[in-house]
Design a protein that fits this description.
The protein has 15 helices and 15 strands. The protein has 436 residues and is α/β, with parallel strands linked by helices.
């Protein structure tokens, strides 16, 4: 039996965009009991009406979506409610998701303490560089490091994240890499595909600077159209003018509609869930995933699961994409490199089809949520059998402490509390990333 307590907003936990919900649903399907503990939100019952797992709400400030700085000011109320749920739940473990939830778990830890597994989800530790749009705040980086150091075990979502944790002082023995999963049924409704306006269609997910490079590469691809998608943590609007200005300078102004931000060759798109953007991905010849390190999301997996070749322009996507087999690695995707790569792919339909088939097979075999749930469960079981001894106050887990909080069940599977990320800005699959 597995019980998750999730510490983010309810609206982010139960929908198809939530990796925590997908993980919970996969474990329910495998016969485990799952409970998500979430911050209360107005009208939240609609978010988890059809979920297979239990959702418990606790107060934590006004029942609306809160920015990080506002959520921190209400963390005391959430910690108190969370602590009550953990103590009453008879859980064996806690799995926190995101730095705010991890902080809340540490503050709410009961006595004797429960073992804590933590997953950061797009940690700022991976990419510490400040950007013009506002890079990671130092308090966020410090909090991520502190939460990771205090957890009994870390489930990192990529080798890149694991390496960043090693650099700040964690040891390999307390980190297990479990990649994000993908809904492998995305390809089931293959007949639903968006209409394209040119012979070839490219989708790009990534940062603004790389999006501009893809627009430049489009000059050498006369039969291709480009769709640029936005994500919650990097809205399109602030960067839309620069993209449109570049398209105008490249003699594409007649195909750009400033009112709807849509053109015949350069399109700006706002998709939310993996299911809503699936028809768009299926309509593409190639999907480019060019997000900065630590912000890869799962769009590369979604493309693979639908048989579309991927250009992997960040290290996390490159971990999933087999270079030359399921797509192409492009860690430094300049406009010239993108143009050369895309010309090769667009000119060879057989190559695209072969890569798409290989990508689909890899997504189904390696990244199904059933497999990801099983790998995560093995982390819990190992931690239950071999608890980590903490030098810090209040975190030394013992076998007797685990027994005292275990539910009465004949199952040997650990009961777990999951605390997910606080807002859609933290969610790896809550929206579409830039396509560039």
């Amino acid at each position: 039996m597995v019980s998750f307590a999730a510490g983010g907003d309810v609206s982010e936990l139960a929908g198809p965009a939530s990796p925590v919900a997908a993980l919970a649903a996969a474990q329910v399907k495998d016969g485990h009991e799952v409970v998500l503990i979430a911050r209360r939100q107005t009208g939240s019952s609609a978010w988890f009406h059809n979920t297979a797992f239990e959702v418990r709400e606790v107060p934590g400030g006004p029942p609306t979506e809160l920015a990080d700085v506002d959520a921190i000011s209400h963390i005391g109320e959430f910690v108190r409610g969370l602590g009550r749920e953990i103590r009453a739940g008879g859980f064996d473990m806690v799995h926190s998701h995101g730095w705010l939830a991890g902080l809340a778990v540490q503050l709410a830890s009961p006595a004797p303490p429960l073992p804590v597994v933590h997953t950061s989800h797009r940690p700022q530790l991976v990419n510490r560089l400040e950007t013009a749009a506002g890079g990671p705040r130092q308090y966020r980086i410090n909090a991520e490091r502190a939460v990771a150091m205090r957890a009994d075990h870390i489930v990192a979502t990529s080798e890149v994240e694991r390496d960043s944790l090693l650099r700040v002082g964690l040891t390999r023995g307390v980190i297990t890499v479990v990649p994000p999963g993908v809904h492998t049924e995305l390809a089931d409704n293959a007949s639903t595909t968006e209409t394209r306006w040119r012979q070839h269609r490219l989708l790009v997910f990534g940062s603004t600077s790389r999006t501009l490079d893809t627009v430049r590469a489009l000059r050498l691809l006369p039969d291709a159209e480009l769709i640029i998608c936005g994500r919650p943590d990097e809205p399109i609007e602030p960067q839309a003018d620069s993209i449109i200005d570049l398209a105008t300078a490249l003699d594409l102004s007649q195909r750009v509609h400033l009112d709807h931000r849509i053109s015949q060759r350069v399109h700006l798109d706002h998709r939310i869930t993996v299911y809503e953007r699936a028809p768009l991905i299926r309509s593409a010849d190639v999907v480019l995933c060019l997000s900065p390190p630590g912000q890869a999301g799962t769009t590369h997996l979604e493309a693979m699961a639908q048989g579309i070749p991927v250009v992997a322009g960040n290290p996390e996507a490159a971990e999933a994409v087999v270079n030359g087999i399921t797509g192409v690695h492009a860690i430094d995707p300049t406009a010239r490199f993108q143009a050369a790569t895309l010309r090769t792919l667009l000119a060879n339909a057989t190559l695209r089809q072969t890569m798409g088939i290989a990508g689909y097979d890899r997504a189904i075999a390696r990244y199904s949520w059933n497999r990801i749930a099983a790998e995560t469960l093995r982390v819990y079981e190992r931690l239950i059998q071999h608890p980590r001894n903490h030098p810090g106050p209040g975190r030394a887990a013992s076998a007797s402490g685990l027994t005292a909080h275990r539910r009465s069940t004949t199952s040997s599977t650990p009961s777990v509390v999951h605390l997910p990320y606080r807002s859609s800005q933290e969610c790896p699959t809550a929206g579409i990333t830039w396509i560039s």
